[in-house]
Each structure stands twice: as C-alpha cells, then as structure tokens.
Amino acid sequence: MPEQLLAIIAGLLLGSFLNVCIYRWPNDLSVMRPARSFCPGCEQQIAWFDNIPVLSYAVLRGRCRSCQAPISLRYPLVEGLTAVCFWIIVAQHGLSPLSLRNCVFAFILIGLIFSDFETMLLPDELTIGGTIIGLAFALWVPLADSTFALAASVFGYSPNPRVASLGEAALGAAFPAFAMWLMGFLFEKLRNKEGLGFGDVKMIAAIGAFTGLTGTLQTVILASVAGSIIGLIWIKVSRKPTDTYQPFGSFLGAAALATLIGGQNWFWRLFGGN
After folding, report:
1. 119 shares a domain with 87
2. Among the three residues 47, 75, 95, which one is the final residue of a domain in this structure?
3. Deepest in the core among 117, 127, 208, 220, taking most CB within 10 A?
C-alpha cells in the first residue's frame, strides 16, 4: 500500500511537470526557463500554493487567481491520469525496474496524447527521445516478445537475452514505423495530400521501442479502429468535412496505454488467441 501511495504522489508531481512540457514544447519554449509555471493569459508566475496538482484547480475553480482567465481542464486531467496509471502499474508489478520502465512509457504516452489533441503536434522530445529511452530500457528490462530471436534462429544465430531484447525493441520501432511511413508516402502520391504526419511515424517508433513488434501491431490496429469509429462520429456530430484531419497520435497513445495496462496479448485473446 505505501508503494502505491508513493506511485500516486509521483504521478501527480510528474503529471504537473508534463503539463509544462505539453504547453511549452509545441511552442518551442524551454521547460527549464522560466523555472516556475506561468499563466498563458496574463503571463503572471504561478505561486506554489496555486500549483498543487488537481487540488489547486479545484480550489481556484478552474480560473487564474491573477486575471481570472479559465484554466484548461487538460491540467487536472493529465495530472490525474498520470497518477492513476502509475498506481495501476505499481499495483501490477510492485517497485521494480519493470514498473519504472512502464511508468516512463506512460508519462511519454500521456504527453503525446494531449499534445496531439491540443495542438496536432507531436514533440520530438517525446517521440525521438522516447525511442532512445525505450531502446535503452530494452537492455535493462527484457521485452517478453521473441520475434527477433525467432527470426535470428532461422539464420542459425541464438542471441543472448539482452541482445534479443534490444533487437526486439529495434524491430518493433523500425518495421511498423517504416510500414506506416510507406503507406503515408503512397497515399500522398496517389491523393496529392498528406495522409499521415511524420510525427505519427516517429511516435510509432517510440511505441515499438517500448513494446516490441507484437505490442506495436496491436496498438496500431486498436488506434485505427478507434480512430475510424470515433472520428466518423465526431465528423457527423460537428458537421465537419469528411477529409478533416484527426489527431491520430492521440488514438495511438490511448491504444498504447491500453496495451501497457492490459498486456500485449489481451486484444488477441478477444478473438480466441493465446
């Protein structure tokens, strides 16, 4: 129980920092300077007692103390979601290297979900940075998937667990990202318009570095189905043109979170797989 409480507190604090990243990185601002958060409306620095995750939003009733400008609901949502994800992960795996990796992955995904939904941008700090971090974790926390090891055995090579894990992470990052880029490239050539942003491709690479090939394929399928259904409903309700761009990165992030929390095989089990 104490470790889960620690996870919740860490999630709230890191969720608060993540809100800074979500606002500043797409606007090409440093997350280090100014060190203290400020109101986007009046640019007044926010006092520490108005910057307590979730609680301050409730006390201020969603408005800046200085200028009374509304504070985006995104702030408590990000803080609360990060805390819940950290709590679930630690409840599943305890205080372990696997929990640390999964919490870092959840942090990255939540940042990408809200950044894409709010700005239609996926910061390189989270996509490229996430890919590098995922590959590094693969050397420390082995991936369960064995696609790379199986492929290597065909050529008579039996990699040790660390190499197999790193190879799986690299395969999960490279193959789906290249396939997605190729589909987007062909769509653009055939339809003369962009069908998939390169930020989505980099995001898929980051997801693959953390989940391997099977987890990435599951994520892409889930995101595509959810994006199609929810996107069509939203277009119908809002009466937007059918070719309106959708924040596919948000759907990818949500699907990857479902894969992270539910396990890499839960989707396949729905259809009778093992």
Report:
1. no
2. 95
3. 208
CA distance 250 to 248: 5
Mapped onto helix, strand or coil, the DSSP state of residue 94 is coil
Domain assignment of residue 46, given as a range? 1-95
Query: pLDDT of 118-168, one tens digit each?
Result: 999 999 999 999 999 999 999 999 887 778 878 777 877 888 888 889 999
Verify that 87 and 10 share a domain, yes or no.
Answer: yes
Q: How far apart, in whole angstroms, are the C-alpha atoms of residue 29 and residue 240?
A: 32
Q: How many domains in the chain? A: 2
Mean pLDDT across the chain, nearest whole number? Answer: 87
Q: How far apart are CA 111 and CA 18, in angstroms?
A: 6
> What is the rounded CA–CA span in Å between residue 156 and residue 225?
38
* 99 vs 43, more confident: 99
Whether 66 and 131 share a structural domain: no
Length of the chain: 274
The two three-digit tokens of residue 48, written as one number: 């520490």
| % of the chain beyond a pLDDT of 90 | 53
Mapping DSSP to helix (H, G, I), strand (E, B) and coil, where does residue 132 land? Answer: helix
